[in-house]
């Protein structure tokens, strides 16, 4: 998924200065962004107050949207570097094409994991004949220095591990949780879990104390350590937690994201993750010049996106929080 802001700000991210030394309950203020021709998303990372949770650097939550009379998601070919995209659906279907030749349709409960590494291009769109509703999350994970130039690759996992207990069904997208491990390849210690809670469920969710965590409410109504969360809200939980008390006031879906605090400083602008403004500018120039670095997406009926103009000011190191 692309960042389609016409003037995307450049962000210097990473480092430990903004990591809490213990538990927190900070509600993150997201903002609404238009994605493609007709899909509106709630951007929860990066946002006011926080730029990262572990290596997770980007969280968009969209839907549920009735797309019966619309084309649904339509994101033209665009590039990425230095990150992984983690695509997760609760309703709908998305057609992924990329410059490696991947041509995959993924559905709810399936993991679409694209590692951009040195550089890749892809498109995402709802098929011409698609389900009525579209609802899901698009997530990005920053790659560490030693792996950020890895050869790009795409993984589609139609079945993911999980478990059920006391009104909770957990599906592990990335990392390990509750004794089970996702087949998706991760490059830093992290976790991503879909939590499906039955109406009235009251559970203690196990956490890794060395990780910082965030919790996104995809649907339903829950309270987290007594803090109510409505759909589309994300709560930053800090570090040092071994468990988390979650109560569901209705059938609910949550996304638990976490990881070791990301120590490296990085720059994220548009769809690129790099280590300097100069590096980002070179990525943008190469993409607009149709460099072989990113390849070509075959099969998409339409023009590719151009990189927007770079910000007129130099980047200022700001760390993990504003």
TrEMBL record:
Pfam families in the record: Pirin, Pirin_C
InterPro entries: Pirin, Pirin_C_dom, Pirin_N_dom, RmlC-like_jellyroll, RmlC_Cupin_sf
Parts of the chain that traverse the membrane: none
Location of the Pirin N-terminal domain: 40-141
Domain of life: Bacteria
Pirin C-terminal domain location: 193-290
Coiled coil (residue ranges): none
Stated family: Belongs to the pirin family.
PANTHER family per UniProt: PIRIN, PIRIN-RELATED
Name this protein carries in UniProt: Pirin family protein
Lineage start: Bacteria, Bacillati, Actinomycetota, Actinomycetes, Geodermatophilales
């Amino acid at each position: 998924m692309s960042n389609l802001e016409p003037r995307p700000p450049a962000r210097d991210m990473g480092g430990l200065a903004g990591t809490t030394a213990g538990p927190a309950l900070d509600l993150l203020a997201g903002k609404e962004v238009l994605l493609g021709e007709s899909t509106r998303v709630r951007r929860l990372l990066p946002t006011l107050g926080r730029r990262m949770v572990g290596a997770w650097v980007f969280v968009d939550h969209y839907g549920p949207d009735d797309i019966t009379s619309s084309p649904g998601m339509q994101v033209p070919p665009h590039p990425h570097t230095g990150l992984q995209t983690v695509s997760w659906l609760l309703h709908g279907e998305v057609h992924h094409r990329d410059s490696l030749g991947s041509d995959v349709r993924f559905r709810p409960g399936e993991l679409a994991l694209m590692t951009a590494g040195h550089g890749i291009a892809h498109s995402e769109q709802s098929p011409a004949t698609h389900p009525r509703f579209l609802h899901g999350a698009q997530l990005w994970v920053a790659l560490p220095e030693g792996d950020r130039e890895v050869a790009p690759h795409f993984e589609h996992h139609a079945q993911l591990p999980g478990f059920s207990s006391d009104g909770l069904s957990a599906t592990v997208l990335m990392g390990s949780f509750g004794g089970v491990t996702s087949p998706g390849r991760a490059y830093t210690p992290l976790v991503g879990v879909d939590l499906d809670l039955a109406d009235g469920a009251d559970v203690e969710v196990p956490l890794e104390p060395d990780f910082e965590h965030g919790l996104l409410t995809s649907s339903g109504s829950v309270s987290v350590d007594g803090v109510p969360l409505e759909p589309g809200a994300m709560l930053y939980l800090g570090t040092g937690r071994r468990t988390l008390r979650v109560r569901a006031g209705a059938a609910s879906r949550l996304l638990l994201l976490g990881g070791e605090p990301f120590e490296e400083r990085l720059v994220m602008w548009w769809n690129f993750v790099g280590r300097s403004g100069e590096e980002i500018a070179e990525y943008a120039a190469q993409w607009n010049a149709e460099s072989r670095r990113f390849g070509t997406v075959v099969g998409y009926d339409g023009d590719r996106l151009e990189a927007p103009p770079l910000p007129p000011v130099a980047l200022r190191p700001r760390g993990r929080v504003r």
